[in-house]
Amino acid sequence: MIFRGGLHVGASYYNAINASWPFAKLNIEKESIAISSPFGNPRFSRAQITKLSKYSGFFSKGVKIEHSAKQPPFIVFWTFDLPSVKRALEENGYQFSE
Fold first, then answer.
1. Which of 57, 73, 77, 87 is most buried by its number of CB atoms within 10 A?
2. pLDDT tens-digit readout, 28-45
3. 90 vs 43: CA distance, rounded Å
4. Best CA proximity match to 1, nearest among 37, 45, 34, 23
5. What pTM was estimated for this model as a whole?
């Protein structure tokens, strides 16, 4: 399942770059999650994902991806349709924390 949105990626919330909607895509598959953006294309295997949780910004909601991959530690995929992203994650066997 593919969703279009935005991306905030970097060392922390304050030390990160942002790609606004529609410049990022989230691809959810059974064994991996991938993000496409102007800043790179991180891919996380199921084993590398330690936590998926709701993240609230000033005006947006998103999915924070905590992981053990060799990628920047702070990654949030922004979406206008968090319920659909959450449902797709859960349908593919991922745990999602509110």
1. 77
2. 999 999 999 998 899 999
3. 18
4. 34
5. 0.93
